């Protein structure tokens, strides 16, 4: 029975992410980073009157954060492929 | 939270576009009813439904574990029984072998005795036979002597007219015979 | 079905419209019960009702319904164990609720003739405010629990090891933005997937109606988008499940971070 469960789990893992899903995942990770950076920058502009520098710097940092997100997501996807 | 405000800011310009998913008219309503239904679902699930499912799974797991234990115990018992059986079988076999060996020895002894008896009987019969043959030969030889003596006396009487007594004739025969 | 009728029937946005069922204004804020609220309530009732029904017998050897309920239970429990460890299981009811609510919301959206106010199917997960609320709950729990459990140690999450001191502030800033982007990502992904899928479906379905209404050779060509819609519907069911799963598993990963902020 354990073997059966194990086999089922393996099958579950084998199916893996589809290309569509993967693309959407990376895309949303990146977009999320940029959006969060922009939001923070906009907030800083609004709160401290740094306009337009807050938004500018925020978006640039957001790009960096988005890239970091994508790298982490890719790592976790690869790890899953390697581990299971 | 910061994100709260940013969405609030986003909502302001979304108001101009009539795209329903961004239409802030019903944001408050959706949040309100979302909170109600989500909390209700959480309470229902965590209080009543999930413990029930978890309990059923747990119960089955326990039962299976118990059954496995029982099965292991039964198997141990069966092993024990089998061992005992094997031992009994081996004993029986050994006993059977010893009995067989004994029987064989007995049979051998009996055969040997019978052979010896038969041999002895045969020897006795042989000896008796031989004795009888010897007797008969002697007797026959004795008769031959008297016949020869008679014949000699008869021959002497016919040829020489001599009257030979039986004892003389026998003496002569004995002399010839040497 | 020509003229405004066709436009009405093929409008891909109409399915996201909200209709009030009864009005409720509290302190100037519109809290009306709408078709969106209706579907949320239906999701709640159906998830708890179906699961309770499936477990009503609570047999040792499960029937079909009970097997499904237990499979779902084990599925979510396994997901938490794999990503956040056994410690994460204390959040099991929360993650299960999240998963079931989103899954049911997505699936209800796939039933176009489900009886509802406004006379059209509705997917509450295609409204950004709902997905936003979902992700805010998740991130509030992650931050709140992380702070309670680890105190200031929770902020180690933002300080990666082995980075030169010179660029540390920069990196920390990026890490913070990356962390803030998590609920945004969570929220936007679910919302965008459901929205895009439903719009796409409706657009192709609209092609069928337009081609069908055009008559003649066009009606025959209308078969093509029909097959497209069939394929897309199948894909949408997959997406409906996948997005609920992704939302739940990312929640687990973030909860895992709150439990062990050091391991990054």
Q: How large is the share of residues in beta strands of chain B?
A: under 5%
Low-confidence stretches of chain C: none
Helix content of chain C: 55-70%
β-strand percent of chain C reads under 5%
SS-derived structural category of chain B: mainly alpha
Order of helices and strands of chain C: HEEEEHHHHHHH
Q: Oligomeric status of the shown chains?
A: heterotrimer
Number of helices of chain C: 8
Calculate the mean pLDDT score of chain C and round it: 85
* Unreliable stretches covering 5 or more consecutive residues of chain B: 1-17
In angstroms, what is the radius of gyration of chain B?
A: 66 Å
User: Biggest sheet of chain C, strands in spatial order?
Assistant: 1-4
Largest interface: B-C, 42 and 55 residues
How many beta-strand elements of chain C?
4
Task: Give the count of helical stretches of chain B.
Answer: 3
* Amount of helix of chain B: over 70%
N- and C-termini, Cα separation of chain C: 59 Å
* H/E series of chain B: HHH
Q: Biggest sheet of chain B: strands, sense, closure?
A: none
Broad shape of chain B = rod-shaped
Number of domains of chain C: 1
Textual characterization of the structure:
The complex is a heterotrimer of chains A (84), B (178) and C (264). With 84 residues, chain A is mostly helical. Chain A has three helices and no strands. The mean pLDDT of chain A is 77. Chain B has helices at residues 2-14, 27-160, 166-177. Mean pLDDT of chain B is 83; it is low at 1-17. Chain B contains three helices and no strands. Chain C is mostly helical. Chain C is built from eight helices and four strands. In chain C, strands 1-4 form a two-stranded antiparallel ribbon. A two-stranded antiparallel ribbon of chain C has the order 2-3. In chain C, helix 2 crosses helix 4 (92-109), helix 3 (64-84) crosses helix 8 (223-259) and helix 6 runs antiparallel to helix 8. Chains in contact: A-B, A-C, B-C. Chains B and C meet through helix 1 and helix 2 of B and strand 3, strand 4, helix 2, helix 3 and helix 4 of C.
What is this entry, summarized?
The complex is a heterotrimer of chains A (84), B (178) and C (264). Chain A is an all-alpha fold. Chain A is built from three helices and no strands.
């Amino acid at each position: 029975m354990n073997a059966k469960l194990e086999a089922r789990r393996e099958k579950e893992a084998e199916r893996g992410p589809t290309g569509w899903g993967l693309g959407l995942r990376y895309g949303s990770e990146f977009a999320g980073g940029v959006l969060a950076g922009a939001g923070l920058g906009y907030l800083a502009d609004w709160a401290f009157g740094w306009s337009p520098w807050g938004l500018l710097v925020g978006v640039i940092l957001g790009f960096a954060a988005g890239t970091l997100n994508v790298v982490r997501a890719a790592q976790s996807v690869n790890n899953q492929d390697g581990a299971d | 939270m910061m994100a709260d405000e940013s969405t609030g800011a986003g909502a302001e310009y979304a108001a101009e576009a009539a795209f329903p998913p961004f239409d802030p008219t019903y944001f408050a309503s959706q949040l309100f009813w979302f909170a109600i239904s989500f909390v209700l679902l959480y309470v229902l699930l965590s209080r009543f439904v999930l413990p029930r499912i978890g309990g059923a799974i747990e119960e089955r797991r326990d039962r299976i574990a118990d059954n496995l234990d029982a099965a292991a115990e039964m198997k141990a018992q069966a092993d024990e029984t089998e061992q005992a059986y094997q031992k009994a079988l081996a004993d029986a076999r050994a006993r059977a072998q010893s009995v067989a060996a004994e029987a064989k020895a007995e049979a051998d002894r009996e055969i040997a005795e019978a052979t010896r008896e038969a041999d002895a009987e045969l020897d006795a019969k042989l000896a008796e036979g031989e004795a009888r043959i010897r007797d008969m030969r002697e007797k026959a030889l004795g008769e031959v002597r008297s016949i020869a003596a008679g014949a000699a006396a008869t021959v002497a009487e016919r040829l020489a007219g001599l009257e030979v007594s039986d004892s003389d004739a026998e003496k002569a025969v004995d002399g010839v015979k040497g | 079905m020509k003229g405004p009728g066709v436009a009405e029937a093929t409008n891909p946005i109409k399915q996201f419209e909200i209709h009030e069922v009864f009005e409720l204004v509290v302190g100037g804020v519109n809290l009306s019960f709408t078709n969106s609220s209706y579907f949320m309530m239906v999701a709640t009732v159906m998830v708890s009702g179906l699961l309770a029904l499936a477990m009503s017998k609570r047999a040792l050897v499960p029937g079909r319904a009970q097997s499904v309920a237990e499979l779902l239970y084990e599925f979510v429990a396994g997901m938490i164990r794999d990503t956040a460890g056994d410690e994460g299981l204390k959040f099991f009811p929360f993650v299960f609720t999240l998963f079931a609510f989103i899954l049911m919301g997505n699936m209800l959206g796939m039933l176009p003739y489900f009886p509802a106010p406004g006379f059209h199917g509705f997917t509450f997960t295609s409204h950004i405010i709902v997905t936003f609320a979902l992700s805010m709950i998740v991130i509030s729990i992650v931050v709140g629990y992380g702070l309670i459990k680890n105190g200031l140690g929770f902020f180690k999450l933002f300080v990666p090891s082995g980075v030169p001191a010179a660029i540390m502030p920069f990196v920390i800033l990026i890490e913070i933005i990356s962390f803030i982007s998590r609920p945004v990502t969570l929220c936007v992904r679910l919302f965008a997937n459901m929205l895009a899928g439903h719009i796409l479906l409706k657009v192709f379905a609209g092609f069928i109606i337009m081609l069908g209404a055009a008559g003649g050779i066009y009606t025959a060509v209308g078969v093509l988008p029909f097959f497209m819609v069939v394929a897309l519907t199948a894909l949408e069911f997959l997406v409906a499940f996948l997005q609920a799963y992704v939302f739940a598993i990312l929640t687990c990963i973030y909860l895992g971070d709150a439990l062990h902020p050091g391991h990054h």
